[in-house]
Amino acid sequence: MLSKIFSFLSKDVAIDLGTANTLFYLKGEGIVLNEPTVVVLDKNSNKVLYVGLAAKQMMGKTPPHMEVIRPLKDGVISDFETTKEMIKYFILKVLKRKRLIKPKIAVCVPAGITQVEKKAVIDSGLQAGGREILLIEEPMAAAIGAGLDITAPSGNLIVDIGGGTTEVAVISLSSVAYSESVRIAGDEANEAIMDYLKKKYNLFVGENSAELVKIAIGCAYPLEEELTYDVAGRDMVTGIPRNITVTSEEIREALKEPVNEIVKSVRRALEKTPPELSADIYDKGVFLTGGGALLKGLDKLISKETGLKVEVTESPLTDVAKGTGIALENYSIYRDVFIS
User: Fold this and answer.
1) What is the Cα–Cα distance from 264 to 203, expressed in whole angstroms?
2) pLDDT at residue 101, rounded to an integer
């Protein structure tokens, strides 16, 4: 009876606390927030000035007394206080202070999370206003969000490529039979593009610009029609702003190393999967999700390297948040998938 009263007075929240973006899913409403995991602080007072999209738009443009912070690195909290303030800000924005009781919060975390990192997530959630914090591993949440039947005695291989980590997991009977968290993903792809432009063109570009290049013409496999993109930056010799045109072939070359690491992680998963589950994966193929799954031709490259069918899920950008929300909404069914 008391739990029903709590449920009525509060609004349970599922959070995809990502390195690049944070998504909120409200019980009964679906995804209600999707904003960059970025905060702007006043250096003098240490006060949070901007959060989310407003903060990201200020990257590389702040005056000396302000600092842009990305409080998560490689999928885990690197700045506890800033993360706490960011979650608190988003909770107030989403719930609009209408609820009388603190919400129950489900948060997805990388498969390779340590006990210390786990505690940081739980503590930040509690201090941000949650009454109870539940944790779920990202690949499990992604599989649920993608509509895979995780309860069946059948193997599913899911590859979730986020901003800070690539999560590779084989899931069967509501449990993870094999998982690996590789700390190479979207951020490393952006850095690879920045390094390439520095070395080849002596051009310094910011992280936001590198990300735009990746989205526009980034690819892992030759395209039927190669693309070009104009990118502006600062000449590292003269210090003067300059504009160049880069091709998709060049960016494919720039991304070769991080892409190869992702492919290797998939191959390792296939090598370490029990034979019975391998047969299931051979029949079903590999499921790609996360923002990195949208890299042009990545599905074709993985298919070529493994000989398996590779499918990008229907909503790769929101699968993890959606899956976390579905598991929270149907807690009696998915109780066993939570790791806390």
Assistant:
1) 31
2) 72
The domain total for the chain is 3
Distance from C-alpha of 104 to C-alpha of 82, rounded to nearest angstrom: 21
Q: Are residues 291 and 278 in the same domain?
A: yes
> What predicted TM-score, i.e. pTM, was given to this entire model?
0.91
Cα separation, 76 vs 167, whole angstroms: 13
24 and 76 belong to one structural domain: yes
Q: Compute the distance between CA of residue 92 and CA of residue 97 in angstroms, rounded to an integer.
A: 6
Single out the residue of 320, 15, 263 nearest to residue 143, CA to CA: 320
Q: The sheet that has 104-109: what strands, in order across it? A: 30-36, 21-26, 13-17, 104-109, 132-137
Q: Strand 156-161 to strand 286-289: parallel, antiparallel, or no bridges (unpaired)?
A: parallel
Q: Which amino acid is at 99?
A: R
Helix-helix angle 256-272:298-306, to 10 degrees: 40
CATH at 235: 3.90.640.10
- pLDDT of 6 reads 45
- Distance in angstroms (rounded) separating the CA atoms of residues 270 and 249: 29
Q: Six-digit token pair at 44?
A: 């003098």
Domain span at 220: 186-256
Task: Tell me how far the alpha carbon of residue 79 is from its chain's centroid.
Answer: 17
Q: Do 33 and 68 share a domain, yes or no? A: yes
Q: What is the DSSP letter of 308?
A: S
| 220 three-class SS | coil
What is the C-alpha separation between 108 and 323, in angstroms, rounded? Answer: 9
- The dihedral region occupied by 33, where left means phi > 0, alpha psi between -120 and 50, and beta the remainder, is beta
Residue type for position 24 = F
Using only C-alpha atoms, the chain has a radius of gyration, in whole angstroms, of 21
Task: Give pLDDT < 70 ranges for the chain.
Answer: 1-10, 97-100
**Does residue 290 share a domain with residue 262?**
yes
99: its two tokens: 């609820």
